[in-house]
Each structure stands twice: as structure tokens, then as C-alpha cells.
Amino acid sequence: MSQINMVQSLNRSLDRLMATDERIIIMGEDVGRDGGVFRVTDNLLNKYGTERVIDTPLNELAIIGMASGMAMYGLKPIAEIQFQDYIFPAFDQIVNNIAKVRYRTGGRFDVPLVIRTPYGGGVRGGLYHSQSGEAYFAHTAGLIVVTPSNPYDASGLLVSAYKSKDPVIFLEPKRLYRAAKSEVPDEQFEVEIGKAAKLKEGDDVSIITYGSMVPVVMSAVEKNQVNADVIDLRTILPMDITAILQTAKKTGRVVIVHEAPRTLGVGAEISALIAERAIDSLLAPIVRVTGYDIPFPYSHEEFYIPDEKRIMNAINKVLNY
Q1: Which domain covers residue 41, as residue numbers?
Q2: Residue 192 lies in a domain
């Protein structure tokens, strides 16, 4: 085991995968000589050369278009979009092409493509470098949407994403890149896609979260000694419906926490799911703690991103209902 942060964990997994599979192509803006804006692809160009680590033009549509063609014809591209906010020029390729190829061709073609991209706030990047757009992709059948919350899951989920026959949107919470270190196995391993993790066992309230909000939730419940089930989704699409319903039925009180805006967010889908299948078990209304329905602010992002105080207010609301 090694004590490493998320950047180191992702870099090491990419390195190992490239060493064992010559079909893997890393491509994106500044992924080569600069090693990526956040250095996730650092030193891979030196080890694997310019034919396998490709610095592309500033053209997200072209990056995903080229990567999708590579994937359909036998390669294993891992494309990086420098910030998730930049992905929208490639949105047509993602939702109208790669997500639908398997269906459109009757299963004749797969698109084993991984699209890595940092998302969310935490680096004071303003509205064009801080958005959380997971709901856009979770709304699209044919995609897999993954977001790790720690170095261990980042490594294991990336390996599983590489092995997937379907395209994976791999969302990396940038505020967690170097926020903490944890133990990660020195050998290659997998974390199952579609399987949530229970981080804490409790009976009074269920807190369902993912990505950058996981450590914030854990800090809040531990400091305040909340007897809570804490669920880290890890995969947004496909969502672990079983884990969500089990915890909702167990405690009867549910708080959902995510950084993305509230309206039509992942929390709304989870709320609807519980209301449809477990409403008889609820002892209080479901409460969401989210970002606001405004553009991500240029300054004072701490007022936008859910914090421990807002989370505890929601927990106390459902506990005292």
C-alpha cells in the first residue's frame, strides 16, 4: 500500500494501464509536455512517446470526435477535457454519437472510450472553471458517469472504466486532487462501477452524496456525532438503486448533498426514486443540500458550495421533524 493523493493515484493507474495495453492513447490539451493542468498525466509523454500521448489543439469537439473513431476501430483512448466547463463544444459528439453507437449499429460497434475531466469548485476559477455538470450526462442513455471521492476509488474506478465497453464520463473533483492522501494498493485493482460505498453505519438518518461533498459530509457527521448512514454513490449512472432504497427504508430520514445546482440535479432523481419506492418508510420529508441555481460565482465560492453548517441544518431538520 502507498499513501498517495488523487492526482498521484490517477497518474499511477494511467501509467500501469499504458504499460500493459499498447492500444491506450492519452489525448487532450496540454496532457503531454505539461502533464496536464493538474499534472494527472505527468511524465507519461516521456515514457510512451508522442504517438500514445497526444497534445491536441484547443478543440474539444475534435478531441472527442477523434477519440470516438479510435475507440470504434479497436484502440482504447482516454481523452482529457481540461475543465468540465469546456466539454460543451463536444456535447453533440457525446450525446448524439458515442452514447448511441451501440444501439444505432445493433451492437456491431462499441465505444470503449474514457473521457476524464476535472469538475466542480474549489480552485477559485469562476464560472467557466467550476461547474458541476454531471446531470447533463446522467440524462443520456448509453453513457456511464463516474465520480470518485478519494484516491483509492479514483484508481479502482479508472481501471474499471478502461475495461468498460461503453463510454465513461469520468468526473474528477478537482478540489480533492491534493486535499488528502489515503492508502492505495500498489498492485492494479478494480472498484465496481454501479456500486455505492457505505462510509458510515447509523440508524437515525441517511446521507447520500458523492464526489467533492463526501469529505465535507463525513467531517460534519463525525464532529457532531451524528448516528448516520453515509452513502457515497461513486457512480451516478448507473446509480446503485439498491443501496439508496436500503438506507432510506432503514432510517426513514434522508438528506442528499451535492455541489451541483438544485433544480433537476442528481438529488432530484434520488428523491423521486425514494418517493416512488420507499415513501411508506419515510419519517420526514427528504431534504437536499446543493449548490444554488445561479452561475458559479467569481468570488466567495464558499457561500455557493455546501458546507458543514448547511449540512447540519438539514440533518437537524429531518431529525426534529
Answers
A1: 2-184
A2: no
